[in-house]
From TrEMBL:
GO terms for molecular function: ATP binding; ATP hydrolysis activity. Keywords: Amino-acid transport, ATP-binding, Cell membrane, Membrane, Nucleotide-binding, Translocase, Transport. Pfam families: ABC_tran. The keyword Transmembrane helix does not apply. GO terms for biological process: amino acid transport. Residues 2-266 form the ABC transporter domain. Gene3D superfamilies: P-loop containing nucleotide triphosphate hydrolases (3.40.50.300). It comes from Anaerocolumna jejuensis DSM 15929. This is D-methionine transport system ATP-binding protein.
């Protein structure tokens, strides 16, 4: 479970000048949710999601993951934490000089120690294997995991292809596989379908839903596209000018016809 409490983020943009991008955000995201965060461009969505994996440091407030305040983590603790959170982006951010299998393996190869827990592994095994002995993953283990992930995202035939030869949808599948390599419990998606046409969007959303159901990963979806939220998010929060103005079950939030911002977002649908 993710609990965001009174989260505020300010950027100093000039001497004595601050820009408040997130104002007193309170939110609870439960395990296995596909939680949408929707809002207009500039509302603060990307900043919010970047706070969740500490790419940005919150100015005030706390973010608890399973009761632990991650804003207080440093050093190795932070590394371990980051392995529990995967992220994908609008522009995929793949390594263009590496083929598909190397892209997916990347997070596993740079992990000097096994800082993540494999499902089914006991706490003791985890500690023995990774945490204390700091054993790197063996080549064979990495290859096995890569093959598993290729199967999950249905790209087994593209294992040795380079990203430049792939379509947008295929690139996003590679990014999803890479993000999931270390068995994260949370997947953050920042406008993950915004660069894709509607048919490809549909297939990526279907894949994310399948992954959510099969692995139980919690998904946080940032988007400005209403249809994305309506298709897969069980819950949604509306972010408007740095503040959460509505949140709850998707049906209820979008059913509220008195909300001006919801009407605006619905009206903005292409
Ligand atoms: P969204 O993803 O909803 O479009 P962002 O979180 O990217 O919104 O940006 C929200 C606001 O914060 C914008 O006005 C943006 O210019 C500002 N902002 C984002 N990052 C920084 C930064 N590093 N320094 C200063 N201002 C920033
Ligand atoms: Mg953004």
């Amino acid at each position: 479970m993710i609990e965001v409490k009174q989260l505020t983020k300010e950027f100093s943009i000039a001497k004595d000048k601050k820009l408040t991008v997130l104002k007193d955000i309170n939110l609870v995201i439960e395990d296995r949710d596909i939680f949408g965060i929707i809002g207009m461009s500039g509302a603060g969505k990307s900043t919010f999601i970047r706070c969740l994996n500490l790419l940005e440091k919150p100015t005030k407030g706390s973010i608890l993951i399973d009761g632990v305040d991650i804003t207080r983590k440093r050093g190795r603790q932070l590394l371990i934490l980051r392995k529990q959170i995967g992220m994908i982006f609008q522009n995929f951010n793949l390594l263009m000089q590496k083929n598909v299998s190397r892209n997916i393996a990347f997070g596993l190869e740079i992990t000097k120690a096994r800082y993540f827990k494999i499902p089914g592994m006991s706490g003791r095994e985890y500690e023995e294997l990774g945490y204390f002995k700091k054993r790197s993953l063996k080549k064979k283990e990495i290859e096995r995991r890569v093959d598993e992930l290729l199967k999950l995202v249905d790209l087994e035939d593209k294992k040795y292809e380079y990203p430049s030869k792939l379509s947008g949808g295929q690139r996003q599948r590679v990014a999803i596989a890479r993000a999931l390599a270390t068995y994260p419990s949370i997947l953050l998606c920042d406008e993950a379908t915004s660069a894709l046409d509607s048919r490809t969007t549909e297939s990526i959303l279907k894949l994310l839903k399948k992954i959510n159901e099969e692995t139980g990963v919690t998904i946080v979806m940032i988007t400005h596209e209403m249809n994305v939220v309506q298709k897969i998010c069980n819950k949604v929060a509306v972010l408007d000018k740095s503040e959460i103005v509505a949140s709850g079950y998707t049906k209820e939030v979008f059913g509220d016809t008195s909300s001006e911002i919801v009407a605006q977002l619905l009206g903005g649908e292409e």
